[in-house]
Specification:
Blueprint (H helix, E strand, L loop, with lengths): L2 H6 L3 E3 L4 H18 L6 H22 L2 E3 L4 H10 L5 H18 L6 H17 L6
Antiparallel strand pairs: 1-2
Length: about 140
């Protein structure tokens, strides 16, 4: 499904492209990513930082293409397969979104170090690819 198709079914809304916001989101993601790899922090804090870095990068790529999610954050992750050529990594990002919701809304604990390391690795891929959209 392309970005235009996601717009057609109202999962994405058009929004004026903002290079300033794009750059700000990349900078925010870099800072969050840097903090997420700090081993002296709790695993739950690191997960939340890594998730927010992922979301900032996904949102940056949408903003670069002139869109925003209509309400569901996971759509920003779904769109990555069309804009920065992510494949199976998108499923892990969507799973991270579900875990984030469980932590945020249901007070579920997070303690999966392997999953956290995979999320951090995907963020490193995104940090290489998303800024390239700028040209």
């Amino acid at each position: 499904m392309t970005l235009k198709n996601l717009e057609r079914i109202k999962l994405l809304l058009p929004l004026e492209k903002s290079e300033t916001e794009f750059v700000h989101l990349i900078e925010k993601a870099r800072e969050l990513h840097t903090d997420s790899i700090r081993k002296e922090l709790s695993i739950q804090s690191r997960f939340q930082l890594a998730y927010e870095a992922s979301f900032a990068l996904a949102l940056a790529e949408l903003r670069w293409h002139g869109y925003r999610p209509s309400g569901n954050r996971y759509v920003a992750f779904q769109a990555l397969s069309h804009t920065v050529e992510l494949g199976s990594e998108v499923a892990l990002l969507i799973k991270a979104h579900g875990l984030r919701n469980e932590i945020e809304y249901d007070a579920e604990p997070f303690d999966d170090l392997k999953f956290l390391e995979e999320l951090i690795a995907i963020n490193e891929i995104l940090l290489d690819r998303v800024p390239l959209l700028q040209g």
